[in-house]
Design a protein that fits this description.
Distance between the termini of chain B: 68 Å
Structural class of chain B: alpha/beta
Largest sheet of chain B: 6 strands, mixed
CATH topology of chain A: MetI-like fold
Number of domains of chain B: 2
Shape of chain B: globular
Low-confidence stretches of chain A: none
Helix content of chain B: 40-55%
Structural class of chain A: mainly alpha
Number of helices of chain A: 12
Strand content of chain A: under 5%
Number of strands of chain A: 2
Strand order of the largest sheet of chain A: 1-2
Oligomer: heterodimer
CATH class of chain A: Mainly Alpha
Mean pLDDT of chain B: 89
């Protein structure tokens, strides 16, 4: 039976309309704002400044530092999130008796919002660590980043675990059996059979964790804030403060566009690399 | 069959689009005002007051909720898109000047000439802001542990910090305003012409590090880092709690924190002392927020909002709410609050005797405390940066923000 185009339109229209209103149109308007100097009030005139905002972004040392910091944070966190995610997934897909309970518990941190997580962990890293003489981690330049890595990993590992579980369940039993018959050890099965079959899951999980970590905002603002000498400030928080605290709408918007381009380029590269390695049965 | 499908599709799409729109189009009834304000601690009582007002006058009052965080950016977004409240609050100073185009002239209200000197917010000769109350901050101290009479200069205070036997002689806390904004207000406010001095700092013609008050401030900050619990390690709640339980002898706080002391059985007397930079004897007192009427509201709505303010400040019910429920310090002649706690009492007395210095911090460039001053101060408290370096860095931040 041939399905009419009308039906496609019917089912996609609501989503398309919402997507246009809340994503595409504001994004295009935002590009326009980035060429103006404006404080965000409708009664105050905006001055056209051309590409000046973009030129200044590259001279803004605080923003460049935040860029480097966010990149380092992302590299570490993507590794830890996926490492823990895959380990959890391998553990809870064995014949372990508590596997269902374990899945639920590991997934639960993801259901708590990042803001709340940040505030909960703040008291751990600050009050609890001070009480056992480990010092305040949130005011130390290196440890505050480590703290953010820990919290983000704790939050996201359970989420990517779910994706890996689906991937592992989808591996045909006969392939694994064949490996067993051929006398492959556990490690050989894992690296030679399971991981290549899991490549589609890797693509998704790396993409999700990569873009999530670059965009980190809620954990940043609630756990560490800007920190001493801006040492814990990430991309998004820098942009937020520029726009909403200092009222530099045009300049902040220019930063946001550059931020978007960086994330888009990096994730596109990642997806195209991992896609190539996917094997089809 | 195919035709019916298309018609059906069109009808359904229409239905969905319509349902999306109804949420935004709630019609305005006549005789209704909306209030959006940032003083969250009076929210419950304000809702009750709105009901009482409706019962008395028939005018519907809708109070919009806020958690207080992001209030100012929410307000700006609302006003900018013509969806702002009729009556709203702002901090008089940098905020009200930025929003001046949206503020209606309130000079016509009957009680305007009874407002305490300099407390109404005037822009271009017109009264636009009606003060809620006054608030004051300084050194809140435990009378059993601190002899305030012996602290008259910065040197005395530093000497006290070094010799005090309390667990924590002077508590600041990690929140941006309690860490730096309030205490940095003192050296600005003791200048002969605070506003003129601030302008000179902002345009770069004066350096803070050349000024006696700021040199003393730098020494004081070094002494705090040396002798007190590191402020970046304490939260506001713990700081006030430690004071209430006698572990901390003195905190740099204001009258708003007394509400917390009610939760503890405080068994000592306390009072409020000035920060003694260059021998200062006055506490920092000002109007934290004021009421403003939206010029973009219709004539009728503006009239209703003004009537509401008139009622709030002159009717018996309104005054009772302001004094007994909100527990405000009176700012309009003819009001009196008989149940003030010691700290509020000290602020009230300072207002009456004129023993006050202004909140210069209200005129600092908007947003600067959170984005720059706090990160710099946190760096000071976690490294061995000198006090003068701190003052210099703060100075650079002021100049950069004013550009």
């Amino acid at each position: 039976m041939k399905i009419g185009k009308g039906w496609y339109a019917l089912f996609t229209a609501p989503l398309m309309i919402v997507f246009m209103i809340v994503v595409v149109i504001p994004f295009i308007i935002g590009i326009g704002y980035s060429f103006f100097e404006w404080d965000g009030l409708a009664k105050h005139a905006a001055t056209f400044v051309g590409f000046r905002n973009y030129g200044e972004v590259f001279k803004d040392q605080q923003f460049l530092n935040a860029t480097v910091r966010t990149t380092i944070f992302t590299l570490i966190t993507v590794v830890t999130v996926n490492l823990f995610g895959i380990i959890f997934a391998l553990v809870v897909t064995t014949k372990l008796k508590v596997r269902n309970v374990a899945r639920t518990m590991l997934f639960m941190p993801y259901l708590i919002g990042g803001l709340i997580l940040g505030y909960i962990w703040k008291s751990v890293f600050q009050e609890f660590f001070l009480s056992i003489d480990w010092g305040n981690w949130l005011t130390d330049p290196v440890k505050s980043i480590v703290a953010m890595v820990v919290v983000t990993t704790w939050q996201l590992a359970g989420y990517v675990m779910i994706v890996y579980i689906t991937g592992i369940m989808a591996i045909p039993a006969d392939v694994l059996e064949a490996a067993q018959v051929d006398g492959a050890s556990y490690m050989q099965t894992l690296f030679r059979v399971k991981f290549p079959m899991l490549m589609p899951s890797f693509t998704i999980c790396l993409f999700l964790s990569l873009s999530n970590c670059f965009k980190i905002y809620d954990v940043n603002i609630s756990l560490t804030g800007v920190g001493p000498n801006y040492q814990s400030e990430m991309f998004s928080l820098n942009i937020y403060n520029e726009i909403f605290s200092l009222s530099n709408f045009g300049y902040g918007q220019a930063k946001a566009i550059i931020f978007f381009l960086i994330i888009a380029i990096i994730t596109l590269i990642q997806v195209s690399i991992t896609k190539k390695r996917e094997v089809a049965l | 069959m195919k035709k019916t499908g298309k018609v059906l599709a069109a009808v359904l799409i229409m239905a969905m689009v319509m349902s999306l729109m109804t949420g935004c189009g709630a019609g305005k009834k006549s005789g209704k005002i909306t209030i959006f304000q940032s003083k969250t601690e009076i929210m419950t009582d304000l809702n009750q007051l709105a009901k009482d007002y409706t019962a008395e006058t028939g005018v519907e009052v809708e109070v919009w909720e806020t958690t207080g965080d992001n209030y100012y950016s929410d307000l700006k977004t609302g006003l900018s898109t013509q969806a702002g409240a009729t009556l709203f609050s702002l901090q008089p100073g940098a905020e009200s000047i930025e929003m001046a185009d949206y503020l209606a002239d309130l000079s016509g209200l009957s009680f305007v000439n009874k407002i305490g000197a300099g407390m109404a917010d005037e822009i271009n000769g017109k009264v636009v802001g009606i003060p809620y109350t006054v608030e004051g901050f300084g050194l809140v101290y435990n009378k059993n542990m601190v002899d305030a009479a012996s602290i008259a200069t910065t040197g005395d205070l530093i000497n006290y910090l070094k010799t005090s036997e309390a667990d924590n002689p002077l508590g600041l806390s990690q929140e941006d305003y309690f860490l730096i904004a309030h205490i940095l207000n003192a050296p600005f406010a003791v200048q002969a012409d605070p506003q003129g001095y601030l302008d000179a700092v902002l345009n770069g013609s004066e350096r803070m590090a050349d000024n006696d008050a700021f040199i003393e401030f730098a020494e004081l900050m070094e002494a705090i880092r040396e002798s007190c619990t590191n402020p970046v390690d304490i939260t506001y709640d713990n700081n006030c709690g430690d004071f209430a339980t006698g572990k901390t002898a003195m905190i740099h706080q204001g009258n708003w924190c007394t509400g917390m002391f009610a939760d503890y059985n405080v068994d000592f007397d306390m009072s409020l002392a000035p920060v003694p930079v260059t021998g200062n004897k006055k506490i920092s007192v000002s109007v934290p927020i004021a009421w403003y009427v939206n010029t973009d509201a219709t004539e009728e709505e503006q009239k209703l909002a003004k009537d509401f303010l008139e009622w709030l400040y002159t009717s018996e019910t309104g005054k009772t709410y302001m004094m007994d429920k909100f527990n405000f310090i009176p700012v309009v002649d003819g009001m009196k609050n008989n149940n003030l706690d010691p700290i509020n009492q000290a602020v009230s007395e300072a207002v009456i005797s004129g023993n006050t210095i202004p909140w210069v911090m209200s005129n600092w460039p908007a947003g600067i405390v959170t984005t720059d001053l706090a990160p710099i101060t946190k760096e000071f408290f976690t490294t061995d940066m000198s006090g003068i370096e701190l003052v210099d860095k703060l100075n650079d931040a002021f100049v950069a923000a004013a550009k």
